[in-house]
Write a structure and sequence with these properties.
- By secondary structure, the protein is an alpha/beta fold.
- Helices cover about 35% and strands about 25% of the residues.
- The protein has a single domain, classed as UDP-N-acetylmuramoyl-L-alanine:D-glutamate ligase.
- The strands form two sheets. A nine-stranded mixed β-sheet has the order 5-4-1-8-9-10-11-12-13, with helices on both faces. Strands 3-2-6-7 form a four-stranded mixed β-sheet.
- Helix 2 links the parallel strand 4 and strand 5.
- The longest helix has 19 residues.
- The chain binds adenosine monophosphate.
- Adenosine monophosphate (AMP) binds next to strand 2 and helix 8.
- The site of adenosine monophosphate has 16 residues, from strand 2 and helix 8.
Amino acid sequence: MSLLVVGSVALDSVYTPFGETADALGGSAVYFSVAASLLHPVRVVGVVGDDFPVPELERLSAAGIDWAGVERARGESFRWKGKYSYDLQSRETLETRLGVFADFRPKLPAGWQAAKYIFLGNIDPVLQLGVLEQMTAPRLVVCDTMNYWIQGKKAELMALLGRVDILLVNDSEARELSGDWNIHRAGRWILRHGPKMVVIKQGEYGALLLERERTFYVPAYPLEEVFDPTGAGDAFAGGFMGYLARVGSTDPGQLRRAMVYGSAMGGFAVQGFGIRGFENIDYDAVQKRVGAFVELTHVPSAEPIP
Ligand code: AMP
């Protein structure tokens, strides 16, 4: 089942209490692909400028990432700079330089329109809709967004929500979009506005999958060392979608497993700066971590108390 992502391919500069990076490979499409490709080949649609270290992307091709949909435009690449608080719970965006991203109009290469599993990474909802319009018969459309678009392009975002199967956002985005501080009510509000399901990520507190009739919760993998939370949400999305594309199913049981793969990938992402948390991670390492979730959450049925 073909898997496609559209999103940012970026150069990130990140400061955390444990170190910093400058112009390191990042962006939503990159984090997504690095995680998803551990489970299924991925096709990427995006844009980079003529200053981008393209060999760094090409090095990742061997893992099953096809960059043929990444346009090389004249000008500066998209750059993002962020700084995390001491407990890594909050971050401040220091700078966003759109560069070639400002004029980006995603265009799918020939043959990619038939992709079945699509992740619309956090970009302008108008562009997300533009990608959907190029697709012929998607089976599962999942989208992300951020406060910037909730504030600036709410009407366009609401139109997009009517056309996606799953909205995957973090808790602050769900609150802002719905205007309700309670994430369960916020999730219900989102379900009334289009998507069949909503995934709400809560950082180190795990993630919720909400449907009209059911709620499922997966914890985050307990880690004693966390270096850089950047991209955890996109890596979660990569694990979630990569698993569903691999099994070619969106049955309720598979969706729950996909949440566990998402959480496992989010954990790898935060264990190193940039995408370094994925160095030396292979399919077996993913399976081992997914197995650890079974141990972490399994509750044996209780014997009746006499
Ligand atoms: P996350 O930590 O999951 O929110 O994702 C962080 C990634 O999003 C970084 O690698 C950034 O390059 C990228 N990013 C930050 N701001 C934007 C934006 N306005 N549009 C697209 N990508 C962005």
